[in-house]
Amino acid sequence: MPDLLLELFSEEIPARMQAKAADDLRRMVTDKLVAEGLVYEGAKAFATPRRLALTVHGIPARQPDLKDERKGPKVGAPDAAVQGFLKATGLKSLDEAKIQRDPKKGDFYVALIEKPGRPAIDVLAEILPVIVRTFPWPKQMRWGERSAKPGALTWVRPLHSIIATFGPETEEPDVVAFDVAGIKAGQVTRGHRFMAPDEFSVRRFEDYEAKLRAAKVVLDPQRRKDIILADAKELAFAQGFELVEDQVLLDEVAGLVEWPVVLMGSFDESFLSIPSEVIRATIRNNQKCFVVNDPKSGAAMRTSLGDAAQTSSKLANRFILTANIEASDGGKAIVAGNERVIRARLSDAKFFYETDLKTKLEDRLPKFEKIVFHEKLGTQAERIARIERLAAEIAPLVGADVAKAKRAARLCKADLLTEVVGEFPELQGLMGKYYALAQGEDASVAAACEEHYKPQGPADRVPCDPVSIAVALADKIDTLVGFWAIDEKPTGSKDPYALRRAALGMIRIVISNDIRLSLNRPVDEGVDYLVAQISSRDLEQNSQSIRKIFGDSLGFADLAKLVKNKAEFESRRDTRIKLAFYDRFNDLISFFADRLKVQLREQGARHDLVDAVFALEGQDDLLMIVRRVEALGKFLDTDDGKNLLAGTKRASNILAIEEKKDKRTFDGAPDASLYSLGEEKTLAIAIDEAKREASTAVAKEDFAAAMAAMAKLRPAVDAFFDKVKVNDDDPKIRENRLKLLNEIRAATRTVADFSRIQD
Asked: What are the sequence ranges of the domains in the chain?
């Protein structure tokens, strides 16, 4: 079957756009082929800085013939309807239609339309120019004399040539005949811009890829990445160093070159006095180069501190760059040029770092009073004050020193005002740690300055130092409480303030460190602090703040008329503010439940079990919820668990039907004197014992024992449903038995709401 080769050759395609552009090209072409009835066997797209390429193999030589029946008007219909039918179907007269008989609806005309399939190459000639013209580049440009004309082609950079060939492997392929803005499709391309700029002709993909390779172009982006990584590791190893791998940088660099050539340069050793992260950010961001470690530094440190010491290697004064050319001088001029730029950039970084060290973190804090965090939530200074108070409240709950937690919370945002973080925002927090250590702060305080942002994603580490935990939780709670208070909640895929990440971060911190923390307490404290800050502003500021958040819905003007005493007015005003805030927190616990489901699902847990546990009243201790879910999951994997779930569901279903029929519930204890069968009495005794044992186990937080207590219900429940007729003819006995069923449901709710568990 024939194959398609397509290449769109242009000026430089930005590296950040290449992967998506290749995927878009593959998707657009293959979608169109399928829509035209041309089902293919496989497709693969490629991108380099100068070209997008696509190969689609196993395309049928022509479309399948189509046969279609189109129903028309009834026999004897008005002439206008008949003429419309003939025009739509392409029939010359009704003699070309057939009559389909329908005893109920009457006879009607049917047109048999046969549409022969077209050659696939003709279909491609139609769809490919449309794809080129409608390609979804995020940024496009026009160029040349044609750019002023209506409908001029736009592309990410000037488009120079198009290859489009189609044909079977065993034959010479044909060129797909089309042109876009005067650029005709052919089978000619060019190699590397400098090392092989001449044109050459290609036939099919294997020929195309091989000739590109000979012309110093590695077409496959993954192959370029493999070359860069392998050569960089080998070059570093040969010089006695270790490459610091960076996947994001590797992806970018592979999009900057068509023929990767790895070289090593150096910089002045004096720059190693700068924190290694600053050096790496400088070299990475400005010159797209990799850095290397000196393994001898780690070995020397282990020798001095002992073999058991946990040490890491330090950066060496070397860097690895990726050139796009095999230079005649072996790359000496390229390396020298990069060294000059890196020397200048590191000089700037060193100046920024040394300038930052001259000002203490605490001395920077007054500037935050003039920096707005959010127009409805006040300044950065007010936010820091809230985090400080929250950290002090949380510290005893996580075993942290209160004074250290307050100190860390006070300083944790200060590095946002430093020169280095201004230049490299990705180093916020980390630089706070370095500056805190430099000014003699406690190690836990310094660590918290860095770690209070963590974890920032599923691969990020979780803080484990108690002071870091206290400040990290305080920071995330203030974020959630604040934006929930002003009704800025995540919606669908939009989460501009990263509230989902904050909630997931809290969950990971709590679970990873086995922290017992009720969600309600810090939320209450966060609301109190927010209200206190708003109320502490003068009357005019206060009114403006409240109007921004709630509009005029709180009725302070009416309250002022009713209350003469200023103290009472302020008290009742604060109460109204607090209640208004709490009205917006109805779904915050549910939000945590949803995030916990995401976290547990990644660990293999079932989301319905989280629902079943969260449905119980007062379940806001994340660690205990996880423990319950784990125990419940293990229990339901046993035969006792499965059968008890089935019995409980059966009881709930019967109750739901009868409650709907009687328009009432069957709460209340059953009357033991109405038990007429042994199975009723046995079940009642089993329920009482299970309740008592499960409640005791839950109180001790022994959820496995609570599940074991529930398991004892299984034989009694099975026997009850096997031998007892619930809807007895005697109304009193029927009601009593329904109350007994309700007792089963109530007993299982000691550990979870079984009605929310999926079968």
From this structure: 3-61+120-214, 66-115, 221-357, 363-589, 618-756
